[in-house]
Amino acid sequence: MSKLKQLKSELNKLANKKQALILAGFFKAGPGEYGAGDVFLGIKVPVQRSVAKKYLDLSLPEIGKLLNSKIHEHRLIALLILLKRYGQAGESNKKKFVDFYLQNTKNINNWDLVDLSGHYILGDYLLDRPRQILYQLAKSKNLWERRIAIISTFAFIRQNEFSDTLKIAEILLRDEHDLIHKAVGWMLREVGKRDQAVLEKFLRRRRKIMPRVMLRYAIEKFGQQKRQAYLKN
After folding, report:
1. CATH 1.25.10.90 matches 128-232
2. Taking the model in full, what pTM does it have?
3. Whole-number Å distance between alpha carbons of 61 and 105
4. Residues 181-195 pLDDT 10s
5. Bridge-partner residues for 71, per DSSP?
6. How far is CA 133 from CA 67, 99, 148, 216, in A?
7. pLDDT digits 0-9 by tens, 127-149
8. SS3 content of the chain, % helix, strand, coil (to 5)
9. Domain ranges of the chain
């Protein structure tokens, strides 16, 4: 039995139908919802992480097959393996994992998949490189590519670099999707945790036009009085 078949067989044995129904509801997998068509085995993330550790030697084509699966846990484990492989790669080899990631964004198609991978792979790679790809993704028609764009900037925020986060937040300010509102608000909050003055300068000219959810997320760490002042508008 190939390693890939062995992995899938192990996951099938861990499947839990009751948990699968809960996850399908949580990740909005119903008709017309953002996760429509996603299939769940019902395996919790810590268990998936343990399984992934056993299969870190899968080839990129095999990881690609996992990422092309309709089963959510297959795609999540593929990304967990990719994360580890990227982290272990030397500088000269990281590009192939980033290229692979960008070639498969259509399969990184739920918020948890984006959030566990974007800043650790793409964001990390771009720390000392041109970042134009993020601006292309921010203008994509694909919801998940837009989320990848803003979440990837978390890597920069952690280095106290805020410029790209603020510029991409500006691009996404009028985005129609709630998941983008939340992601942008989250990244703005992270900026504010490191430099509240920078965040407030950004908010002063934009708080009246930004989605309410985005604003609420952004100011979550403010004191109650200041938070209420922002929300009055």
Report:
1. yes
2. 0.95
3. 15
4. 999 999 999 999 999
5. 39
6. 21, 11, 11, 28
7. 999 999 999 999 999 999 999 99
8. 70, 0, 30
9. 128-232
